[in-house]
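Quick start: read one record
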Amino acid sequence: MAVTMRDVARHAGVSPKTVSNVMNGYPYIREETRIKVLASIDALGYQLNISARNLKSGRTGIIGLAVPELSLPYFGELADAVIEAADQHGLTVMIEQTGADRDRELTVLNRPRGHLVDGLLYSPLGLGQEDIGQLTTNTPMVLLGERIFHSPVDHVMIDNVAGTKAAVDHLLQLGRRRIAVLGVHPDEKVGTAAIRYGAYAASLAEHDVPVPEELALPAGRWHRSTGAEAMERLLASGATFDAVLGLNDTLALGAVRVLTRNGYRIPDDVAVAGFDNIDETKYSTPTLTTVDPGRAQIARKAVELLVKRMAGDDFEHEEIVAPYELHVRESTVG
């Protein structure tokens, strides 16, 4: 007799509605409850009733996408691109958030998945090089982003170094020499903030421009609010600057708001650039110069790799760097 959702609910000690919410990626489920339900699904061998074809093949037709935070526009737009790419292969995407928390990211890797998804696209921010051994799982997986390099799984990456240098070089070519940078994580050794700040400093050095440590502004989560707070601190410090580089677009947009409120003309007084090319940058006032990291290409290539792995292809693991493009807009050229 086939296992039902009610059987899973009874085994896990939860309601059938809770089982349904877990299966559909509902974000407001307690983590211990989610783990319990997934363990019961695995233990009972429950299969989603997607189609007779999928049941016969042992496939669900679903892939997982684990991202740090959907409230950050980059990850929301990445999810949209992944859904579009997956649809081309007849796949449905189940999304979960990790909050960029290392423990939650490890939970995503270690939780039993059974017949819930056929593969996983995984974008970690909290893990480090010491966690590479955790990436070997029974579920086919492709890494997104740049947090871990030379791992035992396929990896589609952003060209953070070249992209950041392109933005800094553009500001330098405009004659800007006092470039503030927002979003620094001083204690970070591996990660987006460290890589982009290192590229910023390298670009200045290549142009014989001193790296102004007083213009490196820390920010925790890269939101508009933290960008605004960092800019407020910079203005209060009295330090001189003629350009701002946000390590992502939301930081830069927060800075634009504070600069405008304080009477600065953009780009006449201060040029501003960001990174990610989120949709909002085309409609902000002024429109924002930014680096497009190749989000659509990342999603498309990652899904293609995952589909091959799910089909059992045993090719050598790939590390692919997506092409970037600098979009010059009103915030630097007026």
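Residues 92 and 140 are 16 Å apart (CA to CA).
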